[in-house]
Amino acid sequence: MMIRLTDVRKAFNQGRHNEFWALKGIDLQVAAGKVTVFRGPSGSGKTTLLTMVGALARPTSGRVHLEDRDISSMPERFLTEIRRSTFGFVFQNFNLIKGVSVLENVMIPAYPVGLPHAKLKARALELLDLLEMGGKAEAKAEWLSGGEAQRAAIARALINDPKVLIADEPTANLDSERSAQFLAIVERLKADGRTLLMTSHDPMVADAPVVDHVVTMRDGLVAETR
Amino acid sequence: MTGWTSRQRHLLDFALSSLNRRLGKNLGLLAVYTLVVFVLASVMLFSHAIRSEARLVLSGTPEMLIQKLMAGRHDLIPAGHLDAIRSVRGVRSAEGRLWGYLFDPAAAANYTLMVPNDRTVQPGTAVIGSGVAAVRDTAIGDTLSFRAHDGHLVQFTVAATIDKDSALVSADLFLVSEADFRRLFGIPEGRFPDIVATVRNPREGRTVAEKIDAALPDTRIILRDEILRTYDSVFDWREGMLLVLLSGAIMAFAIFAWEKASGLSAEERREIGILKAVGWETSDVIRLKTMEGVVISLTAFLAGYVLAYLHVFHLGAPLFEPVLKGWAVLYPEFELTPFIDELQVATLFFFTVFPYTVATVVPIWRAATVDPDTVMR
Predict the structure, then answer these.
(1) B24 in contact with A at a CB cutoff of 8 Å?
(2) How many CA atoms lie within 13 A of A116 on its CB side?
(3) How far apart are CA B357 and CA B353, in angstroms?
(4) Which of A174, A184, B189, B290 is 20 to 30 A off residue B223, Cα-Cα?
(5) Residue B180: pLDDT above 60?
(6) Pick from B18, B267, B279: CB nearest A83
(7) How open is the CA angle B98-B118-B109, to the nearest 5 degrees?
(8) Which of residues 1 through 60 in chain A touch B, CB cutoff 8 A?
(9) What H or E segment, with its residue span, contains residue B278?
(10) pLDDT of residue B118
């Protein structure tokens, strides 16, 4: 799935004394079926850029195209539908819902779709098995270690079979062994034909062979692309 | 299952597991909520049933009651008045009634003595209500004696007792023959405590009463409708008293429920952010939270109402009986006939389920309109 950004700008607290421009004009094209990593110092606009691409927020100005569709000015209802069907998210702190089981956490994004319960459960268990988390399906989310929580979050991101997976600092809370494990999963997802977008400070991620493109950002602008 | 029903099922499943996460807190809330519904429903069911019961009992009684007045006080009415009343157009029948109260020092209770119109009681015998039988520990064949107006003893052999089914009106009844009645109270022949009359057309009751009043200026006429109204207001007044006393508890619950339902913790906000980020619409989030609220309030409403029904109609409302039934030594023992008024159920539902659900949904609605990208910040 091709994603194209044209002169994308994003301001927070616009018109107030603490107005802040997180993105100052981004022109970028993300290739379908590839792994792209955004890197740069804190506050460079990596995460904000991912929220624009992932239809979590709208740019203040500029255009975001998903294939041929301009999603930058769509109303929230349509964005929700696009988010659900096109993107899977792995958040920095994984953001699993505490108190409910891993299985239920994985199924949550599919609830509004209205799949029959048995079918949905089978699919969630299949994903958990694939990520070697089958044994933890009934465990509560807060009992999981960092690596397990991440794999549960990946399973949740894949439940609606999205074409694009977005991960915000996926290895920030993991040791080297777990990070390598994560990169192996990324390789499998890429082989499935999915597009992957990640932000990362971690050189291990940016330099990994599976990564096709690295976009370096600084002060809300693209500094370098390779 | 269609997509829509699957969706609702998923939401309900998730709502239940969400509630399960704060099980202790939610069970506590449910218990207090159920108790409030139970108390309110008990008062409503009881007073409604007792009013209906009174109306049923009175529906079989004559339309009017005629008493003679002497210097503004109730006096014995002469039998001659019967003919005068019967000759008024519109009157179907008029009968003199023999009845009065007798204080029994042995039981420290008041009995209602009557000479029945519909059955014959042999002189020297009596038919007694269940309350009298219980308080005097008497069975058929036993003898009871009372001091008459002139100090002489009058003896009665219990010939029969009255069925408990009609205890509401018959618990303190003591039926005797006319001769015994007159001897006991010293009421001369040709005099009655009052006269009852029926009319041909019940809608003309008031007009007929005016005619009787004109023909017999020394009488006062009491219509059945007026008695019904008096009963209604007596029970209304008692119900109102009880509700005022309970209102403190209800207010406390309202504050507690509002506090519990409307306070949205940081954790709940975060969860709503996650749900929206992974593709839930605002309406899905609101529906989920509404379901949580409805599960709690509907469970409390149904449990409270069923418990109140059992309390009132199977156990005889032991908690409110003394206040709502009245004050007497001879409490009638009876089971109320279940009366359920749809409007009353709807009112109770509206005042218990609706406010709680609104209190749950309003803050959620505000949180659900939060931008989904907050989870990324």
Answers:
(1) no
(2) 5
(3) 6
(4) B189
(5) yes
(6) B279
(7) 50
(8) 47, 50-51, 56-57
(9) none
(10) 81
Determine the average pLDDT of the residues in B288-314: 89
Q: What number is the average pLDDT over the span B122-133?
A: 89
Work out whether strand B64-70 and strand B194-199 pair parallel, antiparallel, or are unpaired. Answer: antiparallel
pLDDT at position B328 over 70: no
What is the torsional sign of CA A189, A190, A196, A200? positive
What's the average model confidence in pLDDT over B214-226? 88
CB contact under 8 A, B10 and A116: no
Residues 166-195 of B with CB under 8 A from A: none
Give me the residues of A, 105-164, that contact B with CB < 8 A. 107-117, 120, 156, 160
DSSP 3-state assignment of B246? helix
A98 touches B: beta carbon within 8 Å: yes
- When CB atoms are compared, the residue of B7, B13, B376 closest to A50 is B376
Please tell me which of the candidates A76, A89, A116 has its beta carbon nearest to residue B278: A89
pLDDT of residue B246: 75
Directed axis angle between helix B3-21 and helix B23-59, to 10°? 110
Residues of B whose CB is below 8 A from A50: 376
Among the partner-chain residues A83, A95, A104, the one whose CB lies closest to the CB of B17 is A104
pLDDT of residue A88 exceeding 60, the answer is yes
Whether B52 contacts B339, CB under 8 Å: yes
Q: Residue B350 pLDDT > 90, yes or no?
A: no
Q: What is the full DSSP assignment across B20-81?
A: HHTHHHHHHHHHHHHHHHHHHHHHHHHHHHHHHHHHHHHHTS-SEEEEEEETTEEEPEETHH
SS3 content of chain A, % helix, strand, coil (to 5): 35, 25, 35
pLDDT per residue as tens digits for the range A181-194 = 889 999 999 999 99
**Band (A157; pLDDT cuts 50, 70, 90):** very high
Whole-angstrom Cα distance, residue B227 to residue B64?
A: 10
Is-contact B101 B110, C-beta < 8 A? yes
C-alpha–C-alpha distance, residues A73 and A61, integer Å: 9
Q: Alpha-carbon distance A25 to A8, whole Å?
A: 5
Q: Which residues contact B22 (CB under 8 A, 6 or more apart)?
A: none
Confidence of residue B326 (pLDDT cuts 50, 70, 90): low
CA dihedral A133, A136, A137, A138 (to 10 degrees): 180
Structure tokens at A32: 């379908």
Mind listing the pLDDT tens digit for each residue in B84-107?
Answer: 999 998 899 999 999 999 988 888
**R_g of chain B computed on alpha carbons:** 31
Cβ neighbors of A151 (< 8 A, separation 6 or more) are A131, A132, A133, A185
Q: Does A82 have pLDDT greater than 60?
A: yes
Per the DSSP assignment, residues forming a β-bridge with A216 are A39, A224
Structure tokens at B229: 């109204």
DSSP code at position B340: -
